[in-house]
Design goal:
mainly beta; single chain; 6-stranded mixed beta sheet; Elongation Factor Tu (Ef-tu), domain 3; SH3 type barrels
Length: 169
Amino acid sequence: MKKYLEVGKIVSVHGLKGDVKVEPWCNEPEFICDFDRLYSKDGKKEYEIESSRVQKNMVIMKLKGVDSVEDGQAMRNKILFMDRNDVELEDGFYFFQDLIGLNVIDADSQEEYGKIEDIFQTGANDVYQIKSDDGRSYYIPAIADVIVKTDIDDGKMYIRPLEGLFDED
């Protein structure tokens, strides 16, 4: 598993004192506001957060040492990462990056359907795009009636598909 996970991208400067506007890449923009520090991809560069707030589904953030419009402009297009050890997820919750690539297996027959290729947030529930070995895509709702077990360490998700979900026609 990756130690550093993407949480957002700096898209512009906000104001005259170097605040930056971050496009959040997580379910809720408030999630990013809970961090005291974020990192570069490899964790070698640390960004200390002096303050952050949500404004219109974006995060306005003041980073230590970024004190002017020019400093903020130099940060544009940087991807911000969190250390997975800084967050404890509730049981049954996972980082999207950990779900991508899991083998999807029928919980009863052990038939392998493919791998999770993408995740879509629809509002009511997430939807997992499964890509089979023959290149076909299938979509399964991420609901308790379908998802039986998720084993990140073993790289497998066990499901009970809804009727007709994997039919050829």
